[in-house]
From TrEMBL, chain A:
Origin species: Halorubrum alkaliphilum
Keyword Membrane recorded: no
Residue ranges constituting the HPr domain according to the UniProt record: 1-100
SUPFAM superfamilies: HPr-like
Cellular component aspect of the GO annotation: cytoplasm
Protein name: Phosphocarrier protein
Gene Ontology biological-process annotations: phosphoenolpyruvate-dependent sugar phosphotransferase system
InterPro entries in alphabetical order: HPr (IPR050399), HPr-like (IPR000032), HPr-like_sf (IPR035895), PTS_HPr_His_P_site (IPR001020)
From TrEMBL, chain B:
Region (Disordered): 24-45
InterPro entries, A to Z: PEP-util_enz_mobile_dom, PEP-utilizing_PTS_enzyme, PEP_util_AS, PEP_util_C, PEP_util_CS, Phosphohistidine_dom_sf, PTS_EI, PTS_EI-like
Protein name: Phosphoenolpyruvate-protein phosphotransferase
Organism: Halorubrum alkaliphilum
Chain segments annotated as coiled-coil in the UniProt record: none
Lineage: Archaea, Methanobacteriati, Methanobacteriota, Stenosarchaea group, Halobacteria
Family: Belongs to the PEP-utilizing enzyme family.
Active-site feature positions: H191, C497
Length: 105, 562
């Protein structure tokens, strides 16, 4: 399943919003990929999509605020993953969510 | 004994054993072996072990940086860890290993590709290339078993030599162990140099290629006042160190002929409060509030801000604490504030522009905390200043906001007072309008780092143009003078809180230019106080007049050396 959303955070898919996206993508039992909405046709086998769990790929997209992205998810928790990611990308300022993978020992 | 000239950055002197901190250019790979001879299983394990070691080092560096310098400098390490965990990179590296590539070469190739890709992009993307380089180097050092210089655990008495140091490198240094720093590149207003100063580490920057001739293990003396690196110093030179420690002056100081000059400290985090008072600062001339907002998920509430400001006031019961309202944007990012991505952030939405626009709520909350702190009886006097002012309307709007916040607090029956209000003079526009600003405000404070950047139209981090970034250019001195004159005419006091204020070699000039207050890194307070006491105001004015008449920076420098 997939969804197309406009990236609302003014920073676009850069440093902090990008790492949030990576974290969120990793949280679900689903394979999530993301790309520019208008890259859908004819840009090779991957249709311009990159894995959403890769910081390198996500920041490499260089998506700016106001651009639309296509999010594709596949797996048992695909629907939940899409909800969470759409939520993240359409919220101007991320609030709460202090988790960082529980590595604070 | 050999003496190498550079630029003094932290005006302290230290002596110790030279130790090179090498960047990855020196991490040369062994020749590629026959793929058949490579054991992929063993190489995969080496790679996994290297990641574990690198992760531990990154987390340690993060914690130490947060502890010693502040959360702002620590956040860079979070990005490093995210890249270390990138599944795409890991898969590619493991695939290369399976084809018979040794781990170090696989790491170097794949990170290299990613770095090239990011370097081709603009702005923030280029910074990601630096992050990737840093992570690659950590992995390569482990894989190549290169004697890793762990910056945070250097042995006591180390003088660190480097081509350049990043702010994160500098932030991870242990000030008790590092006797000094010398770098081949960089200027004294780079972020790394400022961090070294806030850690009181003697530093000389911009030594140039000559630095390469110094070897590990040599005894070197870093003289951050003279801007010299002395290799194998003689007895005279060594003995001079002990005499150099400037005595802390607790009292307020006046010039030799009796004019009062306040010598205050710049403070950017709570741990810096104690060293500031220990070094005899007459209060705080620049209290940066950004640290309250950094590395967290949401903005600090009013009470938390109130507590932080009253803690500063308590530390200086008889002095003034000048708080700068939130100054983000430019090069200072706060992730949850969702700051705009701009092609030219230094000319974009930052400082008061955000406080009167997108961040009006945040500005009001901060002002509520400040007005309450102004009424508290815990300590010294509070003053509040607005950053990045360019227009009179910004000041009238900001003052109107202060008044409306006061009205709200009154209606709620909350104790409050309106503190002294001032503007930062960081832009040519503000300096031009200093008379009108002075009429509307109690004080002006000249931020020379940004002012120099904007007057000279030069990026302060650009090493290639470091000659431009010098407040001794007559254009900058005249802009300062215009401000001090206008402030005096308007009966507003005028201070300076840039790096220029902390250079004892410039104290006489600054007194002559009419500054009432100088605010600086705490480490330079004793030396500047000592210098103020020697100054004669009339001579200082003559010096200032002569400097203002100069046409070139070289003439000004020559004048100061006479």
């Amino acid at each position: 399943m997939e969804r197309t959303v406009m990236v609302v955070p003014e920073a676009g898919l850069h440093a902090r919003p990008a790492s949030k996206l990576v974290q969120t993508a990793n949280r679900f039992d689903a394979e999530v990929s993301i790309g520019r909405a208008d890259d859908g046709a004819g840009s090779g086998a991957d249709n311009g999509l990159v894995p959403a769990n890769s910081m390198l790929s996500v920041t490499g997209l260089n998506v700016a605020h106001g651009e639309s992205v296509r999010v594709v998810a596949d797996g048992p928790e695909a629907a939940d993953a899409l909800d969470a990611i759409a939520d993240l990308l359409t919220t101007p300022v991320e609030e709460g969510e202090a988790e960082d993978g529980g590595d604070d020992e | 004994m050999r003496t190498l000239a550079g630029v003094g950055s932290t005006p302290l002197t230290g002596i110790g054993t030279a130790r090179w901190y090498d960047s990855a250019e020196d991490l040369s790979l062994p020749d590629e072996p026959d793929p058949e001879a490579v054991d992929p299983a063993a190489e995969r394990e080496r790679f996994a072990d290297a990641r574990t070691t690198a992760r531990e080092a990154i987390r340690l560096a993060r914690d130490r940086a947060a502890d010693r310098v502040g959360e702002e400098e620590a956040t860079v390490f979070d990005a490093h860890e995210a890249f270390l965990d990138d599944p795409g990179l890991i898969d590619d590296i493991e695939a290369a290993i399976d084809e018979g590539t040794p781990a170090e070469r696989a790491v170097d190739d794949r990170f290299g590709d990613a770095i090239v890709q990011f370097e081709g992009m603009e702005g923030r993307m280029a910074e990601r290339a630096d992050d990737l380089r840093d992570v690659r180097d950590r992995l390569l050092r482990v894989l190549l078993d290169v004697d890793t210089v762990d910056l945070s655990t250097l042995p006591p008495g180390t003088v660190l030599l480097a081509e350049r140091l990043t702010p994160s490198d500098t932030a991870s240094l242990d000030p008790d162990a590092v006797a000094g720093i010398a770098t081949a590149t960089g200027g004294r207003t780079s972020h790394a140099a400022i961090i070294a100063r806030s850690l009181s580490i003697p530093a000389v920057v911009g030594v140039g290629d000559a630095l390469r001739a110094v070897s590990d293990g040599e005894t070197v003396l870093v003289d951050g006042e003279a801007g010299e690196l002395v290799v194998d110093p003689d007895e005279t030179r060594r003995a001079a160190i002990d005499d150099e420690e400037t005595e802390v002056v607790r009292d307020r100081v006046t010039t030799a002929d009796g004019r009062a000059v306040e010598v205050a400290a710049n403070v950017g985090s709570e741990p810096e409060l104690a060293p500031a008072s220990d070094r005899g600062a007459d209060g705080i001339g620049l209290f940066r509030t950004e640290f309250l907002f950094l590395d967290r998920e949401s903005q600090p509430d009013e009470d938390e801000q109130y507590e932080a400001v009253t803690a500063a006031l308590e530390r200086f019961p008889d002095d003034r604490v000048v708080v700068r309202t939130l100054d983000v944007g430019g090069d200072k990012d706060v992730p949850y504030l969702d700051l705009p991505t701009e092609t030219n952030p230094f000319l974009g939405r930052r400082g008061i522009r955000l406080s009167l626009g997108e961040h009006a709520d945040l500005f009001e909350t901060q002002l509520r905390a400040l007005l309450r702190a102004a009424a508290s009886d815990v300590g010294g006097d509070l003053a509040v200043m607005f950053p990045m002012v360019t227009r009179i309307k910004e000041v009238t709007d900001a003052v109107a906001t202060v008044e409306s916040v006061a009205t709200d607090l009154e209606a709620e029956g909350v104790d409050h007072a309106i503190p002294e209000l001032g503007a930062m003079i960081e832009t040519p526009a503000a300096a031009s309008m200093a008379d009108a600003l002075g009429d509307r405000l109690d004080f002006l404070s000249i931020g020379t780092n940004d002012l120099t950047q904007y007057v000279m139209a030069v990026d302060r981090e650009n090493d290639a143009l470091s000659e431009y970034h010098d407040p001794l250019h007559p254009a900058v001195l005249r802009t300062i003078h215009r401000t001090t004159t206008a402030a005096a005419d308007a009966d507003a006091w005028v201070g300076m809180c840039g790096e220029m204020a902390g250079d004892p070699a410039l104290t006489e000039l600054l007194v002559g230019l009419g500054l009432d207050e100088l605010s600086m890194s705490a480490v330079t307070v004793p030396a500047v106080k000592k210098r103020v006491r020697e100054v004669d105001v009339n001579e200082a004015r003559e010096l200032a007049d002569a400097a203002l008449a100069c046409e070139t920076r070289a003439e000004v420098r020559e004048l100061l050396e006479e």
